[in-house]
Design goal:
The chain is of the alpha+beta class. The chain has three domains: 93-178, PDZ domain (Pdz3 Domain, Roll), CATH 2.30.42.10; 184-386, 2-enoyl-CoA Hydratase, Chain A, domain 1, CATH 3.90.226; 395-522, no CATH class. Helices cover 41% and strands 21% of the residues. The strands form six sheets. Strands 3, 4, 5, 6, 7 and 8 form a six-stranded antiparallel sheet that branches. It has a six-stranded mixed sheet with strand order 10-11-12-15-16-23, sandwiched between helices. Strands 1, 13, 14, 17 and 18 form a five-stranded antiparallel sheet that branches. Helix 11 (448-458) runs antiparallel to helix 12. The protein is globular. The chain starts with a helix and ends with a helix.
């Protein structure tokens, strides 16, 4: 009787649960179906009735990308060309001219020609503006014009480019390009090895392992792993790189999502290369994603001392989902958490300011490393040892984002000579030249204070907003403008280092820059000093 009563009670409850779940699903499904039907009808009527000819593919591409803009910047629609570019980025191999290129509506700008590859052999330099590829003007090409530079191995491509206001042409023979994850490694001193890990493509862990083995063979008893400016890449490679320094079976990352199957724990799966060698990891504000998985994991496990400046703060994980006709949706599926439980995501895309910008996390929670050291979440990995010249702020970020430093270095290259990197010295007066360049350029940097003042001026309340008050506001804005210029002096050390890096690369390529780093870079000098003092190194990891 009890069993029968239990069954009679449980079955209705189960049925009610199924009904409620199904009802919720049907409600969501109905809303989705309703919106799709509205959009389909609108799209059809627009294409049939609009006064001018429309391009359905272009309209749809715009519609999709506009929709995704309301989410985070990492959730993206990939058309067929984007899918191929995504594969190339992860594989680290493609056929092309061998140069980092920045795309504009009417031109492509060479950011960096890779030493010994076609662009370099043809004499192309950083700052060159490609305006025509073959017979196609970049301004007339509606797709991504960088794709025109790629092609079959040993095929030829003619480019027309503008350099210092003068047009020129060059014929390039494409070749297979290998994008190394580890573009450089070397002994920094008799006992310290230095490894640059620039990206987390499919080659990252194996190239890092090979560099580590080679350096140890040369006598390295301690290692500096440089993750500065590394934007990330494959999650699996981040786990494998960490695994080189920690034992098999260690938890490195946990991902949490609203979709249960995406909730996963990622542990090291291989035998480590070396769990004892002293290790310093360098990071800065452009170390992101997989770089933060490695640095955050090694910090939480007290396996390395993290040095430099706070990292970018990208704690979101993307997954490519296949769509029809060879397209994909690269969608953020989860947040990742370091071994201590930290999520280091800095921006909250669910909450935005009046201008639509994601709000930065301001409340940090404390966690503890394996040895009990205090670490925080919500805003990147904070280094154990901060290096002042690696610091960044909105002004420095704006100078980089608007390519002011890049453009100054372009002009500098054509008016100065440097013979060897070992003799390189940047004249102190160059910074004064840079300040003059900034003042003459159209560089526009608006602080949060200026935005607030301008907002107040544009929404003035005439009842209380007298001429005197308006005059005070304008005087305050003028004072802020003066302080901005003064800030260029305040942060001259940080800005000069960026100038130095950009200029050295123009003359001596990336390899020359790393050669210069070994004896001049403040972060490497600090790391060498710390690693050379075992007591100080151990004290940091124990406190």
């Amino acid at each position: 009787m009890k069993h029968l009563l239990k069954t009679k009670v449980v079955l209705p409850l189960l049925a009610a649960g199924i009904f409620l779940t199904a009802t919720g699903f049907k409600t969501d499904f109905f809303e989705i179906a309703k919106q799709i039907e509205i959009f389909t009808t609108l799209f059809k009527e627009l294409n049939m009735n609009y006064v001018d000819e429309t391009n359905p593919a272009s309209l749809m591409d715009t519609a999709i990308k506009s929709m995704l803009q309301d989410l985070d910047p990492y959730t993206q629609f990939l058309n067929e060309q984007d899918v191929e570019a995504f594969k190339i980025s992860n594989a680290g191999e493609y056929s092309g001219i061998g140069a980092l290129v920045r795309s504009y509506a009417d031109k492509l700008v060479i950011v960096e020609p890779y030493k010994g590859y076609p662009a370099d052999k043809a004499g192309l330099k950083a700052g060159d503006e490609i305006v025509k590829i073959g017979d196609i003007a970049v301004a007339d090409f509606k797709e991504d014009a960088t794709e025109l530079l790629k092609g079959a191995d040993r095929s030829s491509v003619m480019v027309t480019y503008r350099r210092q206001g003068q047009l020129a042409t060059a014929s390039l023979e494409r070749e297979a390009i290998e994008v190394d994850a580890v573009p450089y490694y070397h002994m920094a001193d008799d006992q310290t090895g230095y490894i640059v890990l620039a990206r987390f493509n499919a080659k990252a862990s194996e190239q890092t392992r090979a560099a580590l083995q080679d350096l140890k063979g040369q006598g390295a008893q301690r290692i500096i792993l440089d993750l500065r400016n590394n934007p990330g890449g494959l999650l699996s490679e981040a786990i494998n790189v960490t695994n080189l320094f920690v034992p098999k079976g260690e938890l490195i990352v946990t991902t949490k999502s609203k979709v249960k199957k995406f909730n996963q724990e990622y542990k090291t799966r291989n035998a480590p290369e070396d769990t004892e060698i002293a290790l310093a990891v360098l990071i800065n504000g452009r170390s992101a994603s997989a770089s933060e998985i490695v640095s955050g994991g090694l910090q939480d496990l007290d396996r390395a001392v993290i040095m430099g400046a706070r990292s970018f703060g990208k704690g979101l994980v993307q997954r490519p989902l296949k769509l029809t006709y060879g397209t994909q949706l690269k969608v953020t599926i989860s947040r990742y958490y370091t071994p201590s439980g930290r999520c280091i995501q800095a921006l909250d895309y669910r909450n935005r300011d009046a201008e639509g910008n994601a709000l930065r996390t301001t409340e940090y929670r404390e966690f503890t490393t394996r040895n009990g050291r205090r670490v925080t979440d919500g805003g990147g990995v904070v280094p154990d040892v901060e290096i002042e010249k690696l610091g960044s702020n909105e002004l420095i970020q704006a100078l980089q984002d608007e390519h002011v430093i890049f453009d100054f270095a372009t002009g500098y290259y054509y008016s100065h000579t440097h013979e060897t990197v070992s003799d390189f010295r940047l004249d102190p007066n160059v910074y004064n030249d840079f300040l003059g360049f900034v003042s003459r350029s159209d560089f526009a940097f608006e602080t949060r204070t200026e935005k607030a003042l301008q907002e107040a001026l544009s929404h003035r309340e005439d009842v209380i907003f007298s001429g005197a008050v308006e005059s005070d506001f304008k005087a305050l804005l003028a004072q802020v403008e003066k302080q901005k210029l003064k800030a260029l002096d305040t942060y001259s050390g940080e800005i000069q280092k960026l100038l130095e890096d950009e200029i050295i690369t123009r003359y001596f390529y990336r390899e020359g820059l790393y050669d210069y780093y070994l004896t001049h870079d403040p972060s490497i000098m600090a790391a060498r000093e710390l690693l050379g003092n075992p007591a100080a190194y151990s004290k940091i990891l124990q406190n």
